[in-house]
């Protein structure tokens, strides 16, 4: 690692099975330097394997989600140097996380910060949050999925407008475009994300994991192949105890007790 080992990303695992990953670099608006990226990846890799963890909340705190990649770290960089950083391996740790990830976004989610939010499965935004892909203003372009995830989320004409102008997208507009899942008062962003995470954490984890995997993998497949994938995952769940318990509890008019198996 080519950075100081200070902790810029904290992790808390709560009793309800929700993990809270918090980026904490306020002096640089939580910009993603190599320390933040590596620590994020380390936490996500560990959380993916932790059986106690059922859902993850990713936040940058009350003031700012993430103002992008750290511009200082690539101001003078050359292409081979950028290639050798292999930051795609760090992003992959988040993209491939099998547990649902809920972003709690207050303040700015710009550039790599907007891309980071789009790596998540659900985005809760505070009413004054602002999203954007301003890389074009730096002579750059989105480099961590921004062109592709944005166009898939909001369609061609809004994605082009946002990426080609580098404009800021206020949270209510982001909601109308389908860039975020919910907009809430700034003070309750994290609480609402935790509430959603906690609800998911109480549900059968095998079903939750299959839904996430099939939705993400299927979105990039031809419909017929995606439907086959869905059917196979659906059938697989009939081997889980939680499926039997869910059906029996419904028929016996009682609350299901899920074991996670
Ligand atoms: N990188 C480094 N430092 C930053 C960044 C950043 N992205 N954003 C803010 N900071 C620093 C500022 O330099 C400043 O530091 P200092 O106090 O030492 O001068 C401190 O944070 C506070 O920032 P401001 O004084 O600018 O605060 P304001 O409230 O006035 O403005 C903004 C906040 C609007 C967020 C403003 O800081 C800004 O525009 N930041 C840059 C936003 C941006 O352009 N982001 C895109 C970066 S490029 C990118 O993300 C490419 C992603 C590709 C990913 C794949 C990589 C391989």
What does this structure look like?
With 261 residues, the protein is of the alpha/beta class. It has 2 domains: 3-201, 2-enoyl-CoA Hydratase, Chain A, domain 1, CATH 3.90.226; 205-251, Lyase 2-enoyl-coa Hydratase, Chain  A, domain 2 (Orthogonal Bundle), CATH 1.10.12. The chain has helices at residues 34-49, 71-74, 79-85, 87-95, 112-119, 146-154, 156-165, 171-177, 189-201, 205-218, 223-236, 241-251; strands at 9-13, 18-23, 55-59, 101-105, 108-110, 122-126, 130-132, 169-170, 182-184. The chain has a 6-stranded mixed sheet, with helices on both faces. Strands 5-7-8 form a 3-stranded mixed sheet. Helix 6 crosses helix 7. The longest helix is centred in the first third of the chain and has 16 residues, at 34-49.
Layout of secondary structure:
Elements lengths: L8 E5 L4 E6 L10 H16 L5 E5 L11 H4 L4 H7 L1 H9 L5 E5 L2 E3 L1 H8 L2 E5 L3 E3 L13 H9 L1 H10 L3 E2 H7 L4 E3 L4 H13 L3 H14 L4 H14 L4 H11 L10
Parallel strand pairs: 2-3, 3-4, 4-6, 5-7, 6-9
Antiparallel strand pairs: 1-2, 7-8
Helix pairs in contact: 1-4, 6-7, 10-11
The protein binds octanoyl-coenzyme A.
Family: Belongs to the enoyl-CoA hydratase/isomerase family.
Pfam families: ECH_1
Keywords: Lyase
Percent range for β-strand residues: 5-15%
Radius of gyration: 19 Å
Q: Could you report the average pLDDT, rounded to the nearest whole number?
A: 96
CATH topology of the largest domain: 2-enoyl-CoA Hydratase, Chain A, domain 1
Write out the strand line-up for the largest beta sheet, numbering strands in chain order.
1-2-3-4-6-9
């Amino acid at each position: 690692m080519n950075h100081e080992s200070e902790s810029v990303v904290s992790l808390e695992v709560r009793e309800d099975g929700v993990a809270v990953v918090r980026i904490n670099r306020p002096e640089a608006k939580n910009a993603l330097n190599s320390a933040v990226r590596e620590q994020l990846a380390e936490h996500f890799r560990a959380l993916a394997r932790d059986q106690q963890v059922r859902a993850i909340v990713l936040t940058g705190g009350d003031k700012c989600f993430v103002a992008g990649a750290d511009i200082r770290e690539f101001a003078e960089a050359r292409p081979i140097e950028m290639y050798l950083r292999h930051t795609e391996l760090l992003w992959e740790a988040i993209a491939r996380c099998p547990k649902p990830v809920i972003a709690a976004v207050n303040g700015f989610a710009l550039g790599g910060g907007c891309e980071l939010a789009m790596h998540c499965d659900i985005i809760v935004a505070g009413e004054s949050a602002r999203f954007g892909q301003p890389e074009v203003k730096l002579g750059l372009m989105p480099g961590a999925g921004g062109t592709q995830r944005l166009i898939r989320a909001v369609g061609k004409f809004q994605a082009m407008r946002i990426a080609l102008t580098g404009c800021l997208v206020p949270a209510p507009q982001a909601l109308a475009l389908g860039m975020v899942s919910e907009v809430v008062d700034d003070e309750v962003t994290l609480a609402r994300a935790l509430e959603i995470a906690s609800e998911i954490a109480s549900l059968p984890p095998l079903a939750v994991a299959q839904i996430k995997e099939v939705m993400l993998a299927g979105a990039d497949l031809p419909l017929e192949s995606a439907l086959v994938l869905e059917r196979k995952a659906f059938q697989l769940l009939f081997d889980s105890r939680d499926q039997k318990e869910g059906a029996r509890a419904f028929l016996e008019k009682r609350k299901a007790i899920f074991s996670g198996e």
